[in-house]
Amino acid sequence: MNTETAHLGSAPLSVAAAHETRTTLVTLMRREFWEHRGLWLVPTIVAALLALATLVSVSFDFHGNRMPNLGADQKLMVLNMSQMMFALIIYVAAAFVVSFYALDCLYAERKDRSILFWKSLPVSDGMTVLSKFLVAVVAVPLLVFVLALLSQMAAFLVWELRVATGNAPDVVRFEAMAWLRGVTAIFLIMVLSSLWYAPVIAASMVLSAWIKKNPLLWSVLGPVLLVMFEYIVFRTGYISSVIRYRSGAIWKVLAPHNAHSGDNLRILSDLNWADAFTFPNLWLGVVAAAALLWAAARIRRYRDDT
Amino acid sequence: MTAVIEATDLARRFGAKRALDGVSFRVDSGRIVGLIGPNGAGKTTALKAILGLTPFEGTLKVLGLDPRTHRDELMRDVCFMADVAVLPRWLRVREALDYCDGVHPRFDRTRALEFLRKTDIQMKSRVRELSKGMVTQLHLALILAIDAKLLVLDEPTLGLDLLYRRQFYDTLLNDYFDKERTILITTHQVEEVENLFTDVIFISQGKVALASSVEDLGSRYLQLNVTADAAARARALNPFYEREVFGRVAMFFEGRTAAELTPLGELRTPTIADLFVAKMQGTMKT
Lengths: 306, 286
Fold this sequence. Notes:
The structure holds two protein chains of two kinds. Chain A has helices spanning 2-35, 38-56, 72-104, 108-111, 115-118, 125-164, 176-210, 215-234, 238-254, 273-277, 280-302. By secondary structure, chain A is mostly helical. Chain B has a six-stranded mixed beta sheet with strand order 5-6-7-3-8-9, sandwiched between helices. A four-stranded antiparallel beta sheet of chain B has the order 11-12-10-13. In chain B, strands 2-1-4 form a three-stranded antiparallel beta sheet, with helices on one face. In chain B, helix 4 packs antiparallel against helix 5 (132-144) and helix 5 runs parallel beside helix 6 (162-176). The radius of gyration of chain B is 21 Å and the shape is globular.
C-alpha cells in the first residue's frame, strides 16, 4: 500500500521535473540566439538574398540560339539542383558562423565575467554546455533547412512568374514527389553532417572553455603545432591524417559509386544512405563528441578567472 | 536556530599563498552577516567556496548541502550577486526577465516588474546602454524576485554613488529581508552598512580574526578615550590596540568591564569600522 502511494506520488513529480528541464533547455538555447545574433541573422540574410537574386538574375539571351530546350525530366533535375544549391549556400554560410560560435560560446562568458551571473542561477554546467552544443548541431541546421525550403520556394515562384511574363526561360518544372525527394535528401544530408561534425564542434567547445586567451587563434595554431611536433619527434603524420579524414570522409561513403549521369531524378535513391548512417566512424565520432562535451562541462565547473 | 552555513577548517591554497587557512564559522538563518577583511584576506575565496565556484579542503555545509557536490540543487535556494559588472552587456532587460523566468522555478516576474517600474529602466534597453547604477537596480530587481533562502553579495555597490548605494541597501532591508532569509555581504564600505549587520566575521590572512553577533560585540569590546597622562594606567589593562587622535589616545579592550574602564576616561562602544581597524592592526603587531 505504502509503496504504491509512493510510486503514484513520484510520477507527477518526475513529469514536473521533465517539464522544468525542457523549459530550462529551451530558455538556454534562446539565450544563445540573443547573444550570437549572427546565428540566425546570417543564414536569414543569405536566404533572402538568394530568393531576391532570382528576381534580378541575368536575363540571358534565351530568344537567341542558346535558348535552352529541356525535357520534362531535365526540368525536374533543375528543380532538385536548385533545392540543393540553395541549401548548400545557406548551410555553408551558417557553418562559418557556427564554427566561430563554438569557439566563442564558453569563452565570451568568461571574458565579460557574465559567467558569474549565469552561475548564480540554478543551471548545471552540463545543461549549459549541452544547450550550446544543441544550438550548433540541431537548432541552426533546422533553421537552415527551413530557410532553404522557403527561399527555394520563393525563388521558384518568382521564376515561374518571370516565365509567365516571358522574362525567363522555362527550364524548371514543379512536381510534388520530386520536390519531396529533394527535401528529404537535404534533410538527411544535414542530419549526417551534424553527426559527422559533432566531435569538431565539441572539440571547439572544449577549447572555448579551456583556453585563457584567443581560442580562435589556438584552434588554428594548436593543430598546426601538434602536427609539426608529431612530425619532428616521431616522423609520423597521424594527427594530420585524422584531421583530413574528419574533414570529409563521410561524403565519400555517401557518394554514389556509379553515378547515373543526367538522371538526377534518383537523387535520393542513388546515395548510399545505409552505408553512411551505419558507418562506424560516424558513431565513434558521436561518442567522442559526448566525451568532449563532458570534458567541457567539467572545465567550466571550476574554471575561475574572474 | 538552524545553521545556514557551517564551515569547518576551510582551506584553499594558490601556490604558496594560503587564501584560506583553516577558516571555521557558522551563519544562522535570519541574520545579516558582514564578511569583512582587507584586500586579499580570503573573503572572495570564502564566498566562492560557499557558492561552489571553487574547490577547497575542509567541511562546508550550505543549507545542509555540500556545494562541491550539490551545487545545482543548492542554487535553487541561494542567490548571489558579484559586483555590478557581471550582467552581460548585450542582454536586454526583457531578455533578462525571460531568462530568469525560464530557468528559475522560484522567479516571480511580477515582483521584478514592480520594482523596475519605480526606476527609469526601459524593457527594451540593453545592459550596455544603462548606467552603472541602473545595472545594479536591474540586478537587484532580479534578486528581489527570486525567493531564495540565502543571498550572497560580494561588494554589491562598488563604484556606485551614494544615492544608489543607499537605495540599494534600503530596498534590500525593506523589501527583501525577513526572518526566513539570510544575507551574507562583503564590502569595503563598512561604515555605511554597519547598522545593517546583525553579525560580523573578520577575515585576515586566510583566518577568522573575529566572529560575533553585533549585540555581543558591545559587551566584549570597549573603546576608551584617555588623555595622555592617564594613558599609562590604562595601558596596564592590556589594550590590544591603541591609536592617537587629536592628542588623546583611543584604546581598544577585549573582555574588560565598563566598571574597570570608566574611571580612566571616556568609554564608548567601538564602531565596527574602528573595531575592524583595531583588530587588523592589533593582529599585525603581534
